Amino acid sequence: MTLVSVAAIFFLTVTWIFAGLEVRSAIVAATTGAALITAGVLRRKRLVATAEGIGVLAVVLVLLDAWALRQNDLFGLASADWPTYWGTTLVTCTALFLLWHALSGLRVASVAGFAAAAPGLGLLAAGLASGQDEPLRLFVGFLGAAVGALLHPLTLPRRGSASGTTASAVAGTTGDPADDAIEENSATRRIPGQWMPRVAKNSAVTDAADPLSTPARHFWPSADRVPERITVLTLGGLALVLATLTSAFVSPDSTVAPFLTLCTVTVTAVLHLLLVLRRAETGAVYAGFAYFCAGLVSLTLTTVVPLVAYRADDLTLAIIVPLLIATLITLGAEFLARRRSTGPARTAFIVGGSTATLIAASLAVLVVSFAALPLLVLLGHGLTGEAAPAPVRANSVWALGTLAAVGLLVGLAWKIGRVLTGRRRVLAWLFLAIAVLAVPFSGPVLPVTLIYVLLGFLSLGALLLERGGRLSLGSFRVVVRTFLVVTIGLGYVISWQSSTTWWIGSVAAIAVLLGSRLLIARTIAAGATSARGLLLSGAIVLSLIASVALPGMLSLHESRSGTGLVAEAARALTLATALAQLLVALPLRLLTRPDRNWAFLTLLTPTVVAFSLPIAAIAEDLSALERATLLQGGPVAGIAHSAVLFAALLLWLLLRGNRAAGTAASCEILAVPRVIAAIGVAPVLLLLLGSIARALTTTTDARILLVPAAALFGCGLALALGVLSGRSRDRIGLESGALLILGPGTVWALGTAHPLGWLMLLLAAVATLLTAITPDGLFGSLSPRRHLGWAALALGIAGLWLGLARAGTLAPEPYVLPVAGILLLLAVLIRRFGRVEHTAAASPVAALLTLAGLLVAIAPLALASATGSLLRAVLVSSVSAVLLLGAGVPRWAPPRSAYLAAAAAAGTTGLVLTSVVQATAALSDPGVPDARLEYWLLPLAAVIAGAFLLSRQTDAATRSSRRLAAIALLLLALTLLTIAEISTLGWAGSRIRDEGLTWGAGSGSDVVTGLRASVLVLALSLTHVLALWRPRAPLTVGVGWTAAGLAAVAALSSVLTGATEPFELGTMPLALAVVVGQVLSRPVLPSATTESAQRLSSAAARRIAAGLALALLPSALVGGTGGGLLRPIVALAL
Predict the structure, then answer these.
(1) 661: CB partners within 8 A, 6+ apart
(2) Residues 35-64: what's their mean pLDDT?
(3) Is position 1046 within any domain?
């Protein structure tokens, strides 16, 4: 066999090379036939894998043979139409492969045959239509392919066949493992030397492995060919879709072409659907293809008429018929689906009906648009104010009739199908919508408005009857409510086209909103309260809109400027909001507390906007003639409107019905409106006063005082409500409103340098003072409000000083004495009425205020005492001395010690400042200072006396502070005296050096200067001695040594400047004072230890030695160097 095979191959090769085309073709044909026969024979012999492989080669060879015939132009096939040729070829291949499959059972033949069926028939059909235009050929080709796909039932197993279930396991494979095993052991090989009987095949295994060959009595094998079916269904579905798309382009000049083409597609899809649904059981893919066909049928049937109408250019046909057909298909599919049990057929009807429903919805958009066109035109005219009737066209009438027909069809179908009871509300929605769309067909604006209003009132009446129990709407309640809203809304908008109809729509809308409140219970429940409040708010808003539009509607046909219309509208809005606020402020039974809250909050923004507009300024820009024609052009209108609003705000605050009453929930409902009303009292009063002032033609400068006047009223009313009624929340609102106008007004007055700015500050201080007062008073209050009193004081002082400065006042007394008086008055009041009991202790605040008042009165005048009259300095120093000495005379006790300390501190400040200022003035004069210097140093003697008076007091609570104060006063006085006198020594010494004089050779002023130095050193030395001799405050040991130090500075200054001659007049008193002070100092106490006593004695001895050295050594040294003998002799004698 091997040699024969090699010889055959060699023979064929040689023949292929040297033979002609006919021989080659014969060889290829023979090879193809041999492959087909060989594959079939091997499949019958159970060699499945080998047979399927050779079968694939055979399929490829068949297709290559077909291609080669055309390419080699055998039998003149190269000139044939290619769709016809290949269509014929594929159809022939389909028959050949399926016959081959039926005879041999090869699976590859089944796959190839079913795959070539649809394309082959499509190409053949397109080839047969070669004389037509391209769109038609495409359509015919796709339709032929869809028809070719009708072979898909052959892919299903035979009904009742066992192989229908078993063969599905192998239907998608190219071979079976059992067949492969049989193929390997099909021939029993003999082994040399051993006999083996031939083993027969197991028929049961064979039958199970090769189910296609079992039922020999049937020509077509029974098997579930899933891949073939998927291929056929995919190609068929794609062909149906493409045929549907190309049908729209077939014969563009023909009107009925879409009808014919789409009907053909519909029939083909129906055939596919029937072939699928005839089986009780189908797979998911097969059922999906059926649903696809059902949807396609609905699509093609519903798009036939639109395409025909488009080509016929008949809009009426496009409006009427498509929607009716889609509706009928939907209703029919639903009717049939309801009579089917659950299964593919029922689902297919549902899919078809759903598709028709979607298409009907899209078609309804067009129909509704034409039906609603008159309504839309009327709405546009109503929004723009253009008076014109709606254009009613025939297409709109047909569209409305179509919608009515749809409703009738739906109702009839549902009645027949016995489902109308559960779907009555849908029909109600539809017919009410048709009624809404039908109203504009009645003609002019007036009838349309009246019909809408009438429909709205009828709906409201039905709802009210149901509320009263006389009528039951059931599930139609929502429909009626919606119809009420729609009809009244449309009537309201449409009515604005004309001045004769707008009020009808406005009144009707307001009446319906108010009447709808009767449908809701008068309870405090959150839902009911919100619903009733929203309806009331809507009615208020519509009323305000009507009031604004009223002037314009009354003068619609008159020639009015835009500014005039704005002024009229603004005045109308102020009147409407003021009257509405007055009505809401009254606690009438007509409105509940939640209703009043909703109404107030709704009116709040319009009221603020209306009364904030500069209506008077707008009216002044008009001409006199147009101003005279204004309905509310005079100032009286502004006064009246502001007065009404002001009265409404006062009613909110003063009427008992607007205050807390009832339950806790209802008490808080009106809290917010009452606080907002309180905030608005001062601004509205300012607006009212401004209108009155403008009517009285007051001066512009004086009008600014209306701001503090209104603020004072608000603060005064707040004080009354807060103190008398304890209504802190209302008080805060009133004060906030006062601040709202007073703050910006004061800032503006100061920023613009207004002539009355100082008065604004004073009145602002009064308003702030009213704000600081609480029910427990001002001075004894525990509330943080009391601190506002300091702000009031600061504002008052600022206003006073600003007024004096603008008046050109230069003297300091008007600036400081009133302020000091106020501070002292406050101190007295706080002491008397403050929180500290005045009989038990002194108030720290009152003491500080006393000190502040005295300092404000004395310190500025003392600093200014160098200028002006001498009487100012005398009075200041006298008053200061009285204060200081007077504070030291009475006995100090806790109830008055702080006030006496304040008086002493103020007196000391006045004495020191006056003395320093006047002494500085005396020293600044040319020449040697005269006796005025000592005269103005006398106030320091009062300071020293005050120090001794303070130290002699016996109050234990202030002992340490008094002691320190007395010492400080004494040291301050001694220091100032020393500085002043040393300043005169420096002037005299410089004069002696400049003129080359010797001491005593000049004028008498030099003698005075030397005398001043000697007296100063002597006085300080005596102070040192007294302090060491009797160390008692304020003459303590520290003060004594400080005085000695000051004396040393004075002596050194006199020596260095040459102001004293001999210089012993400066050194001897100090030296003697040191020595005498140590001698007269107290002895060592008996309780002191020996070591302490020795240390004290040693220190005293050193100080005595230092004093003696100071007394003798300077004289001895100066005498030795100067050549004089008197000083050394005296020094040695001493």
Answers:
(1) 667
(2) 76
(3) yes
Residue 967 in domain: no
User: Is 568 a domain residue?
Assistant: no
The answer to which of 672-681, 996-1005, 1121-1130 has the lowest mean pLDDT is 996-1005
d(Cα 654, Cα 717) in Å, to the nearest integer? 10
**SS3 call for 1121:** helix
pLDDT classification of 258: cutoffs 50, 70, 90: confident
Domain count, the chain: 5
Domain co-membership, 791 together with 848: no
Contact 98, 52 (CB under 8 A): no
DSSP designation for 629: T
Give pTM, 2 decimals.
0.68
At residue 1133, the pLDDT reads 57
Instruction: Look at 711 and 819; give whichever has higher pLDDT.
Output: 711
Q: Do residues 796 and 765 touch, judged by C-beta distance below 8 A?
A: yes
The pLDDT, as a whole number, for residue 539 is: 94
Predicted local confidence at residue 3, as pLDDT: 45
Instruction: Say how far apart CA 586 and CA 651 lie, in whole Å.
Output: 7
User: Which of 779, 809, 839 marks a domain boundary?
Assistant: 809
Residues 835 and 949 in one domain: yes
3-state secondary structure of 613: coil
Look up residue 92 and give its two tokens: 């022939």
Angle between helices 1037-1057 and 1004-1029 (to 10 degrees): 160
Please determine, for residue 164, whether its predicted confidence score (pLDDT) is greater than 50.
no
In a domain, 131, yes or no: yes
Torsion of CA 943, 945, 946, 947, to 10 degrees: 90
Burial state string for 701-728 with b = 16 or more CB within 10 A and e = fewer than 16: eeebbbbbbbbbbbbebbbebbeeeebe
Q: Which helix (H) or strand (E) holds 716?
A: helix 706-720
1030/937 same-domain check: no
Measured N-to-C along each axis, helices 959-995 and 897-924 cross at an angle, to the nearest 10 degrees, of 0
One domain, residues 986 and 1130: yes
Give the Cα separation of 1018 and 1065 in Å (integer): 9
- Range of weakest confidence among 109-118, 678-687, 714-723, 734-743: 109-118
Percent of the chain surpassing pLDDT 90: 17
CA dist 376 and 378 (Å) reads 5
Three-class SS of residue 774? strand
What pLDDT shows up at residue 173? 36
**982 shares a domain with 934:** no
**Residue 885 CB partners (closer than 8 Å, separation 6+):** 907, 942, 945, 946, 949
Greater model confidence, 2 or 340: 340
Find out whether 993 and 982 touch, Cβ atoms under 8 Å: no
Spatial distance between the Cα atoms of 1 and 17, rounded to a whole number of angstroms: 24
Do 131 and 28 share a structural domain?
A: yes
- Partners of residue 1035 on adjacent β-strands: 1032
CA atoms of 913 and 939, how far apart (whole Å): 10
pLDDT in tens, 956-999: 777 888 889 888 988 898 888 888 878 777 655 555 555 554 44
- Structural domain boundaries, residue 395: 324-442
Report the chain's C-alpha Rg in angstroms.
62
Distances (CA, A) of 38 to 52, 55, 405, 579, 908: 10, 8, 70, 109, 142
Same domain (yes/no): 770, 890:
no
Pinpoint the alpha helices (H) of 586-670: 593-612, 615-620, 624-628, 635-654, 664-669
Same domain, residue pair 923 and 1044: no
